[in-house]
Amino acid sequence: MPKWKYLGNILLTAIENATFLIYLTEYHSGFRAYSRRYLEAVHLRRNSDGFVFDTEIIAQAMARGLTIREIPIRDALLRRGLSDCLRAPRCATGSRS
Question: What is the mean pLDDT of the chain?
Fold first, then answer.
């Protein structure tokens, strides 16, 4: 990842944390898991169909007092590179070859 994108992600994450008054380590990967209770509590149809959906669903959760918990994952793309992962399905699971 280019340095300007990396630094931009850090800045955007800090702004989003200050806006939502929570601390999440990352907002921009697009990798999310939601509980059924969470999805039933927010109004999905009020959100856009675009890339801002992730931010909108977090904002709705904070407005409703829902808890957001991060679950750490291993980032195989940073460790190996995208081209390696496209050729090897085991990369998605984080297994080592």
Answer: 78
